[in-house]
Amino acid sequence: MPRVRVHQHVNPFAPFYIFEPEPIELEKAFANPALPLHLDIGCARGRFILKMAQLETSHNFLGVEIREPLVAEGNRIAKEKNLDNLHYAFCNAMLKLDKLLENIPAGVLQTVTIQFPDPWFKKKHAKRRMVNAELVETVVGRIAEGGKIFVQTDIEFLADEMFALFRENKKLKESATGTNPFPVKTERENAVEEKNLPVYRTIFVKTAR
Question: Would you state the pLDDT for residue 5?
């Protein structure tokens, strides 16, 4: 079946994308809701967590994406492959991630990945960038103590901006990494590395403070 075609960029402030998502109910999304949860924010076509779900069956994987056709495609593929530890959710993470995650029990969210988000290069579009103070607050508030947040991009100014937002949170300790700690790479990551271009990466760990 051909890949679903979607716009590469969507304006998160467009009326269609400003909505209240239904909070995720782990019991409905996964066969075993008690498994540790890996959240991939801005998952695009979701191939990273698709492969991760196949490799790491002891975890649940939740992909969040603003383009609804990609969410539908991802859930269709997960069903076809009988992956009951994989689910995709339609959500404007920049504005409504807190609503989506509000019913997730404490201690379940163990890993968060944010990989190659849209940089919105023009200064007038900077407010559209997915990682903002509110998103960081939501992620840190929901992730378990000892949980890890992996952030990477090939755009240096965006790396500086995102890393700075997470560094401002006193509950996080940074553990810089030059490599991807996961056994799977995103399509974008592979494309960038094939061109021998740099990727800026870091990991934040939630502490007891």
Answer: 64
pLDDT tens profile 5-36: 666 778 999 999 999 999 999 999 999 999 99
- Residues known to be catalytic: 118
Q: How far apart are CA 66 and CA 10, in angstroms?
A: 8
Q: What are the structural domains, with CATH classification, of the chain?
A: 22-206 (3.40.50.150)
C-alpha span between 128 and 107 (Å, rounded): 30
Please give the full DSSP string across 98-164, using - where no structure is assigned.
Answer: HHHTTTSPTTTEEEEEEES-----SGGGGGG-S--HHHHHHHHHHSPTT-EEEEEES-HHHHHHHHH
Which tokens is 100 given? Answer: 């989506």
Q: Report CA dihedral (185, 67, 201, 58) to the nearest 10 degrees.
A: -50
Q: What is the overall mean pLDDT for the chain?
A: 94
CA distance linking residue 203 with residue 151, whole number of Å: 6
